[in-house]
Each structure stands twice: as structure tokens, then as C-alpha cells.
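Memo to structure team: turn this sequence into C-alpha cells by end of day. - J.P.
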Amino acid sequence: MSGASRKPVPTQFEKRLGRKRRDNEFLYAQLIGTISDQLNEALHKENFSRADLAKKLGVSRAYISRIMNEHPNLTIKSLIVVSNGLNRRVLLKLTPFENSSTAFEDD
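Reply from structure team:
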């Protein structure tokens, strides 16, 4: 079998990490963190303070802070409202997991 490439066997750590990356709570927290990072980056690029954005949208600064600080109950509507205030639009893209096989599913 010289020259034939074999698929590497995942370690126990890689198996556990693969399961973790598919865990709904982990994925949810990761998505909320990403959204928060992107909103804060847009706020900075627009040269707005949270108070400026709140005033522009006619909402409280506390409302903006909850959304910008990884609020666990962020709604799509709230995300769209804040994104519009930051001159941004929301795009959603569903992609397959990098490793769509079940190799990481079993111990």
C-alpha cells in the first residue's frame, strides 16, 4: 500500500470537540457572540456611541446595551432594527458542518 493515503483516525479529544461544535447551546452562544462582535464593529465604523444609536432608533440606551452585550434573547426583529440603524443589513447563510461524516459522533 505504498503511496496510498489513509484517513487519519480522530483522537478522543477531537471526537469530543466535534460533538461540542454541534451542541446547540455551544452553537447558539457562538452565534450570539458573532452577532455582538459584528454589531460593535459596525457601531465603531459608523462612529456612533450606543447613546447615539439609541437616539437615532428612538429606544433606550439600555435596550441597545442589552443587544450589543450578547443578550441571550435577541430576536431577529431586534437585530434588523439595530442593523438598519447602523446602515447594515442582516444576511443569513446556512452551511454544512466542515466534517459532515459521523466520524466524530461515536466514542
